[in-house]
Design a protein that fits this description.
85% helix; globular; 13 helices; mainly alpha
Length: 354
């Protein structure tokens, strides 16, 4: 008995160096992989932006496929062409007014900063450019990261082309890329990985569509409200509010700042009307519009959105801020599908529908 135990102990001692070497090699490999991912972090952000574009194209293609009996690739192509034509027509029709109002809005904001400084006695920059130059913390970090991102992908225009073209390729054959990702996990996890990716894509599609509808409604309401109370450049104010609505939680607050600054320079009555306008729109957005258009999408806790905005904005700049919402939704669904439901065994799909 003792000889058997001694032989087992001897074998274990002989195997120990091999285990230590394998453990050290695994740690080194993981560290190298983490370093490589960190160096490529901006490329990964661009890749996720392409996934967002592909998700929108696939969703639009599915709508086309409901009315026209054609293949997936043709449906996506028609949907993409329709979106491009709609954007081009909108820009062509609205660009003269939008360009003029945007230029006027920048001048009025600079004037409003001067008025705010003169009337309150608070040390304020003379212009928006000085405000950006003098601000530190998160904003300064965002601007630095924008420069880094632009340098990484050569230029903003090049990056946009890369995102759109990559998104088009992904949308043309999403199954090919999904199955490629499934092959990265062990075979007995293929079905779970495939289901998790499908659910993540469905949740992301619903969230994006709902968010775009909310953006359009908010932009129209703010533009009409600004025109009704006599604020200058109402089209530009509505566009700013609508675009910033895409940012979770902080977007509506940032979208209200230009209108309130301009209203402050025009007197207390206009300021009160502007406060009322943005308050009413914000209440409609949080209590009526968003619950109505996102009722079928995944429900993400607001705290996660806030943390995601801060983290993504600090790490990846403006690009990270823009993608913080969809990235949070996709990651939330994946974690819930893979960890909470599959590993922990909690059945949440029937309760939440995603």
């Amino acid at each position: 008995m003792k000889s058997t135990q001694s032989r087992a102990s001897e074998i274990e001692r002989q195997m120990l160096p091999g285990r230590q070497i394998r453990t050290a090699a695994a740690i080194i490999l993981f560290a190298c992989l983490a370093f490589l991912l960190w160096q490529l972090r901006h490329v990964l952000v661009v890749a996720f932006a392409a996934i967002v574009v592909a998700t929108l194209l696939v969703g639009a293609g599915a709508v086309v496929g409901r009315f026209v009996p054609i293949g997936h690739k043709w449906a996506v192509a028609i949907a993409g062409l329709t979106i491009a034509v709609a954007i081009a027509l909108t820009v062509w029709v609205a660009w003269p007014q939008l360009s003029t109002q945007s230029s006027n809005l920048m001048q009025q904001l600079n004037s409003s900063l001067s008025t705010l400084r003169d009337q309150t006695g608070v040390a304020m920059p003379n212009s928006l450019s000085e405000l950006m130059d003098s601000s530190g913390g998160l904003l300064n970090s965002l601007l630095q990261n924008v420069t880094a991102l632009a340098g990484t992908i050569f230029s903003a225009a090049t990056g946009l082309i890369v995102v759109i073209v990559s998104g088009a390729f992904l949308a043309a054959d999403p199954r090919l890329y999904r199955e490629g990702m499934v092959l990265l996990v062990p075979p007995h996890y293929h079905e779970q990985a495939r289901s998790a990716l499908n659910r993540s894509g469905r949740g992301l599609t619903l969230w994006l569509v709902g968010k775009l509808i909310s953006m359009a409604i908010i932009g129209v309401l703010v533009g009409l409200g600004a025109w009704a109370i006599g604020l200058p450049s109402p089209l530009a104010l509505g566009l700013v509010a609508g675009l910033l609505e895409f940012l979770p939680l902080i977007g509506p607050l940032l979208g209200a700042i230009p209108g309130l600054l301009i209203a402050f320079s025009q007197g207390p009555t206009t300021l009160l009307w502007a406060l009322l306008l943005y308050t009413v729109v914000q209440q409609l957005e949080s209590n009526l519009i968003t619950p109505a258009v996102l009722r079928k999408a995944v429900s993400v806790p607001p705290a996660l959105f806030m943390l995601s905005v801060l983290c993504m904005g600090t790490l990846f700049g403006v690009m990270g801020l823009i993608l913080s919402g969809p990235l949070t939704v996709a990651a939330f669904v994946l974690v819930r599908a893979i960890y909470v439901e599959d590993i922990l065994g909690e059945d949440l799909e029937k309760a939440h529908g995603v």
